[in-house]
Amino acid sequence: MDSYDAPELTPRQDASSRLKDFFIGATPLQKRLESVRKQTSFIPTPPRRKIPQGSQLQEDVDPQKFAVLLHKQWTLYSLTPLYKFSYTDFKEYSKLLTAFIAAEKKKGLAVEVGDDFNIKVIFSTLMGVKGTERDPEAFLVQILSKSQLPSEHKEGKVLWTGWFCCVFGDSLLETVSEDFTCLPLFLANGAETNTAIIGTWFQKTFDCYFRPLAISSFNLSWMAAMWTACKMDHYMATTEFLWSVPCSPHSLDISYAIHPEDAKALWDNVHKTPGEVTQEEVDLFMDCLYSHFHRHFKIHLSATRLVRVSTSVASAHTDGKIKVSLKKSSYFFLFLHSF
Amino acid sequence: MSVLRPLDRLPGLNTATILLVGTEDALLQQLADSMLKEDCTSELKVHLARSLPLPCSVNRPRIDLIVFVVNLHSKHSLQSVEESLCHLDAAFFLGKVAFLATGAGRDSHCSIHRNTVVKLAHTYRSPLLFCDLEIEDFRAAMAQRLVRLLQICAGHVPGVSALNLLSLLRGSENPSLEDL
């Protein structure tokens, strides 16, 4: 395993392996063994996902808060459970994090006169951004620049946003003991330096670990199928795919754009079982695109690697960058569930 | 359509022939080189093919073991293997066929789910081996394993036959598989 990066684990597997060291009691250990036994089922079944009917949670989502999450490019990280994290201590966390960021920024510089930090950190909960009732609440962290003039009272510009969430994490929640909060997905938008500083603070304070999450081509094709399946009144963008062909000296990129209504028509022909998406349907959908391309260009797209998928609903890149463009919040859960 | 049969030719003296089938030419070539480097009492012959059926005109020895190499990064390789499987006589699947899946280490590049390949191997009742053929050490270890498998399938190991080995390999898997 020396010649390339360590294999990326899904958040589910990552949390289970790290929790091994934390259990001392018999009952949590038994629970964990039971969940591991359930996961490694020897019967090979192709994956099958349900389209979640998120209508019962839709009302809780605050549309104003929600607008923060749309139309931004998020970088994904997977996160181990947070130790002794409390939703009531947000003011405390804000103060500590502000001080930490200011200290990090001042490191190496000459001492500045002035006690006022010019940034402010806000923690807030995102109500309703979760899959089932058992999932812990999502929360949002924002770094705002504070205006220098005391006369202005309006909120400063948002410099950096990050949010933590857990959607349909039932199998993870079973293995987690009382003191841990399980929020395996972290999304960040803003400067890399800020992400690194915030990450360091969380790691020190809650004894967790961040790891960049890469999206495999397999998952990208699932996302393409599920997002195309969304019923839309009007489409804002074409459906686009990007493939990377590994060849020397420079890799070749193939981009394939489809009219979104055609893609939806293709999906409707392929999709048979209502309320559920199966592996065969996703494979058939992608195979239709591949064979169409092959007929015209004699290139086997199935031998290349899918790198980016972009639809009117959302777009995702294999490096772990996603962007959600949709206002309808019910479809939002759809994309989070794709992980 | 010519169908490959396991016993339609006479065996060569102290010769064992393996056929590697897969779309990834570079990986197959490297695996073949690794296998030929191994110390072996039998004379090894390695044939490479992109897909079956093989051309009839070539005079080839009896094939003792066929290994289908599937690259988990490429759906095309899986489709090519599935099409090739139709051109094999059923008698081959009594221990003389194995599946090798490569590329599982780099999960972000995978476009095939692991279970798809497991299901394929289970449908054809043949062993499935996982190996990252791009890493030299893993490739050398797999080459050693394949040479041993080949010797058994060619009948050069006294006391073990291909069918015997197949039932031994299946016995070590979870018994619940037998119910399917």
UniProtKB/TrEMBL annotation, chain A:
Keywords linked to the UniProt accession: Centromere, Chromosome, Nucleus
Major place of residence: nucleus
Subcellular location(s) per record: Chromosome, Centromere; Nucleus
Domain of life per record: Eukaryota
GO-annotated cellular components: chromosome, centromeric region; nucleus
Keyword Metal-binding: no
Lipid metabolism as UniProt keyword: no
Alphabetical list of InterPro entries matching this protein: CENP-L
PANTHER family with a match to the protein in the record: CENTROMERE PROTEIN L (PTHR31740:SF2)
Family to which this protein belongs: Belongs to the CENP-L/IML3 family.
Protein name in the entry: Centromere protein L
Natural source organism: Capra hircus (Goat)
Lineage: Eukaryota, Metazoa, Chordata, Craniata, Vertebrata
UniProtKB/TrEMBL annotation, chain B:
Alphabetical list of Pfam families matching this protein: CENP-M
Keywords for this protein: Centromere, Chromosome, Cytoplasm, Kinetochore, Nucleus
Major place of residence: nucleus
Assigned GO CC terms: cytoplasm; inner kinetochore; nucleus
The keyword Nucleus appears for this protein: yes
Gene3D superfamilies referenced in this protein's UniProt entry, alphabetically: P-loop containing nucleotide triphosphate hydrolases (3.40.50.300)
Localisation: Chromosome, Centromere, Kinetochore; Cytoplasm; Nucleus
Matching InterPro entries: Centromere_Cenp-M (IPR020987), P-loop_NTPase (IPR027417)
Summary of the function given for this chain in its UniProt record: Component of the CENPA-NAC (nucleosome-associated) complex, a complex that plays a central role in assembly of kinetochore proteins, mitotic progression and chromosome segregation. The CENPA-NAC complex recruits the CENPA-CAD (nucleosome distal) complex and may be involved in incorporation of newly synthesized CENPA into centromeres.
Quaternary data: Component of the CENPA-NAC complex, at least composed of CENPA, CENPC, CENPH, CENPM, CENPN, CENPT and CENPU. The CENPA-NAC complex interacts with the CENPA-CAD complex, composed of CENPI, CENPK, CENPL, CENPO, CENPP, CENPQ, CENPR and CENPS.
Name of the protein described by the UniProt record: Centromere protein M
Gene name, Swiss-Prot/TrEMBL: CENPM
